[in-house]
Amino acid sequence: MDSLTPAERSERMSRIRGKDTEPEMLVRRIVWRMGFRYRLHRRDLPGTPDLAFIGRKKAIFVHGCFWHQHEDCGIYRMPKTRRGFWLPKLRENKERDARNVARLRDMGWAVLVVWECELRDTEAVAERLRAFLEGDE
């Protein structure tokens, strides 16, 4: 049973943003400090990547573990209530992510997904970002 009333749940869910989230802002700061410049939320690219490096043809998605079903971490947990709503919604998010990554790769782009839970170790994420952006993928 949900501990919040429908009105409280609606208000809380309305505060969830799709861009400029804390994890995304952290990745942007790391990349900026490394000296890499990027474009944000390019709507002309499949999936509207959070960061796009046009000249390098590289894209970074910063995924929230809940919304994108990161099953290999401690953050993601399937809700116990309203599973008929959540299961298809979250499954479609995951399927859409895979389609968008495939479309970008078909266009010759390299793609990196950074998960919210990985940002607990910013040094490791910074190393992955540097390797991705400096590499010849």
List keywords for this structure.
137 residues; Endonuclease, Chain A; 4 helices; 42% helix
Write structural notes for this entry:
With 137 residues, this protein is of the alpha+beta class. It has a single domain, classed as VSR Endonuclease (Endonuclease, Chain A). Helices cover 42% and strands 12% of the residues. It has a 4-stranded mixed β-sheet, sandwiched between helices. It is globular and about 50 Å long. The relative contact order is 0.17. The mean pLDDT is 91.
What is the secondary structure topology, with strand pairs?
Layout: H1 6-14, H2 22-33, E1 39-40, E2 51-53, E3 58-63, H3 83-106, E4 110-115, H4 122-134
Parallel strand pairs: 3-4
Antiparallel strand pairs: 1-2, 2-3
**Secondary structure category:** alpha+beta
At the fold tier of CATH, the topology name is Endonuclease, Chain A
The chain-level mean pLDDT equals 91
Overall shape: it is: globular
Number of strands: 4
Question: What is the tally of helical segments?
Answer: 4
Fourth-level CATH superfamily: VSR Endonuclease
Termini, distance in Å?
A: 47 Å
Helix/strand order: HHEEEHEH
- Please give the domain count: 1
Short account of what is shown:
With 137 residues, the protein is of the alpha+beta class. It has four helices and four strands.
